[in-house]
Amino acid sequence: MPLDPQRFLDDLHKLRSFGASGVGKGVMRQAYSDADIAARRWLAGRMEEAGLEPHFDPLGNLFGLAGERSMLVGSHSDSQPEGGWLDGALGVVAGLEVARAAREAGRPPISCVSFQDEEGRFGVLTGSDVWTGKLVLEEADGLTDTAGNTLAEMRGKMAGLAGNFLPHNRFSGFLEMHIEQGPYLEETGLGLGVVTDIVGIRDMRISFEGRQNHAGTTPMHLRRDAFQALSSFNTALNSRIAEVVNPATVWTIGHVALHPNASSVVPGRVEFSMQWRDADADRLARMETLIRKTAQEIAADHNVTAELGTVMGIEPAAMDARFQAELAAAAEALAPGKWQKMPSGALHDAANLATVMPAGMLFVPSIGGISHAFDEDTYEADLVLGLQVLDSAARALAG
């Protein structure tokens, strides 16, 4: 068979060399970094060698095109600032191998893709956000990273490569293979997960403004301590939100900026991120109501003011029923009883693609449930099994 698992693994390890961290298999390949651009140039070369037509669009999304209309398979190749070697990269190289094998066997055409900035240096799933029309390029250009760089400035580094945006109807559907990024498949002894839906996400910034003062001379009952307000908010929210969530719901305070952040000063201000995820849009809305109400009540209790920012995010996305069925049939044929349908708690480009074409997604296990870290890994046997299932489903859907 033209599908070549060793060629797939070799390409996957070669991609890891771009931005290699020097720690385990970790990579540092943020969107638009020198390592990211070098990796995309290398991928474009591999696509061309495979008989595909490399195409960069204005944002830096890289397509390997086969024919005038084809199935699209891929993911993203950028990483977190300190990321793992498989997150996104697995789906890109798997897409390349499946597309290459289809061409070598003379089967119906399959194209591949590496979307840009899926990891959100500038937004949320930025590359597929813009390509699917969720975000217009002019608005995206104004987005900034944590260092103050604009997207417009960074994508200017790829100006010599950029072409036009491809029409969605050039593709009949989208498949994405990814590591699970969680512990479920490993803990249950399953080798594959057929994704049913991708959770929605909401993200907002909240701040409590109190009164900065001396830590030694300000009595406790007179303090307007912003950090104590945050601490109380976290405790109260965890209790109240239990009334509306289910076991799959998650919420996180992931970034905290305390001012002035000094040991002898009562903190006068704290700003923090509040993120919550669920597959039910109504539940996400009820959680937002609870978060807002709790923040205002805690602010009043602590004599501080609360400022709640704009809520941003992505709606829950169901995967196409036919695509799920083909992935399930391939999984059962190649790994009988070793697969299960499951939701995705992480965001993926497939969530955006599902708004413009049928989409499906396949998971392989993550060792220890670890991702977004240098020690992210998956056994090569699981990677190859996933590739074989993806290829089988892609062939059926492309045909």
Automatic annotation (TrEMBL):
<keyword id="KW-0862">Zinc</keyword>
<dbReference type="Pfam" id="PF07687">
    <property type="entry name" value="M20_dimer"/>
</dbReference>
<dbReference type="InterPro" id="IPR011650">
    <property type="entry name" value="Peptidase_M20_dimer"/>
</dbReference>
<keyword id="KW-0464">Manganese</keyword>
<keyword id="KW-0479">Metal-binding</keyword>
<feature type="binding site">
    <location>
        <position position="119"/>
    </location>
    <ligand>
        <name>Zn(2+) 2</name>
    </ligand>
</feature>
<dbReference type="GO" id="GO:0046872">
    <property type="term" value="F:metal ion binding"/>
</dbReference>
<dbReference type="Pfam" id="PF01546">
    <property type="entry name" value="Peptidase_M20"/>
</dbReference>
<feature type="binding site">
    <location>
        <position position="76"/>
    </location>
    <ligand>
        <name>Zn(2+) 1</name>
    </ligand>
</feature>
<feature type="binding site">
    <location>
        <position position="178"/>
    </location>
    <ligand>
        <name>Zn(2+) 1</name>
    </ligand>
</feature>
<feature type="binding site">
    <location>
        <position position="87"/>
    </location>
    <ligand>
        <name>Zn(2+) 2</name>
    </ligand>
</feature>
<dbReference type="GO" id="GO:0016813">
    <property type="term" value="F:hydrolase activity, acting on carbon-nitrogen (but not peptide) bonds, in linear amidines"/>
</dbReference>
<dbReference type="InterPro" id="IPR010158">
    <property type="entry name" value="Amidase_Cbmase"/>
</dbReference>
<dbReference type="InterPro" id="IPR002933">
    <property type="entry name" value="Peptidase_M20"/>
</dbReference>
<comment type="subunit">
    <text>Homodimer.</text>
</comment>
<keyword id="KW-0378">Hydrolase</keyword>
<protein>
    <submittedName>
        <fullName>Hydantoinase/carbamoylase family amidase</fullName>
        <ecNumber>3.5.-.-</ecNumber>
    </submittedName>
</protein>
<comment type="similarity">
    <text>Belongs to the peptidase M20 family.</text>
</comment>
<feature type="binding site">
    <location>
        <position position="87"/>
    </location>
    <ligand>
        <name>Zn(2+) 1</name>
    </ligand>
</feature>
<dbReference type="InterPro" id="IPR036264">
    <property type="entry name" value="Bact_exopeptidase_dim_dom"/>
</dbReference>
<feature type="binding site">
    <location>
        <position position="372"/>
    </location>
    <ligand>
        <name>Zn(2+) 2</name>
    </ligand>
</feature>
<feature type="domain" description="Peptidase M20 dimerisation">
    <location>
        <begin position="200"/>
        <end position="301"/>
    </location>
</feature>
